[in-house]
Amino acid sequence: MHTSLPIRKVFEGVATRHDMYRMFNRHRGDPATAAGDAGHLFAGEWFEIAERDHNYMFEILPPLFMRGDMFAMREYLTGSITSVFLALSIDGRRRFFHGYCDLSELGSPERLKVSIIERESRPVRAMTREERLEHIWSSTHDDYRGYAGVGGKRTVLVYGETSGTIEKALDALSDDEISAKLPVHLRYLPDAIAA
Question: pTM of the predicted model, to two decimals?
């Protein structure tokens, strides 16, 4: 029996092609990836991309499936996890997204689509603490992030005025440390209530 993993936004804004490819590999170095068991890391992750990148990915290989506003890549990332690309109309604007779905879960692509539309239709632009942390992880260079301990806890380098640069667990960052690591245009967005 499969347990659905949470569907979560991992990057705020429209990813550049460079960002997109970095996020395809955002779990490189995780012990689960090395062990070939990274499905739980990727399943449910999504982010916005540009139309040209959506179209480029469509032309790489014949898709595994096409359903009106979405298609899946023929190559699986791991197990039954593959990339799904979506072209959605949200608030009268056509937008493009990439997400990972576990195709062994019935309805996984549709749940991803519904979650994206629900999240992106909010009247006020805001981010949850988890979205802020995911954005930091996605946008931090590999040299400044890593994994620590037996469980592979995600870490990032932070600068402390008295302690200098130290490695700190991503989920243990203070609000001030989160703000310092976010781009200026994202620092002062209001907190969103997690759905």
Answer: 0.81
CA distance 138 to 19: 8
Residue type, 182: L
C-alpha neighbours within 13 Å on the C-beta side of residue 147 = 12
Q: Give the side-chain half-sphere CA count within 13 A for 179.
A: 8
What are the φ and ψ backbone dihedral angles of 183, each rounded to 5 degrees? -60, 150
Q: What is the pLDDT of residues 117-127, one digit of tens each?
A: 999 987 667 78
Q: Which class for 27: exposed (0-12), middle (13-18), buried (19 or more C-beta within 10 A)? A: buried
In this structure, the chain runs to a length of: 195
| Integer Cα distance of 172 and 112 in angstroms | 28
Residues in Cβ contact with 44 at an 8 Å cutoff, skipping those fewer than 6 apart: 4, 5, 6, 7, 8, 99, 100, 101, 112
What is the residue extent of each domain of the chain?
8-120, 129-187
Can you tell me whether residue 37 is helix, strand or coil?
coil
pLDDT at residue 23 tops 80: yes
Residue among 168, 163, 191 nearest 181 (CA) = 168
pLDDT band at 97 (very low <50, low <70, confident <90, very high): very high
What do you get for the CA distance between the two ends of the chain, in Å?
Answer: 25
Beta partners for residue 49, in sequence order: 15, 96
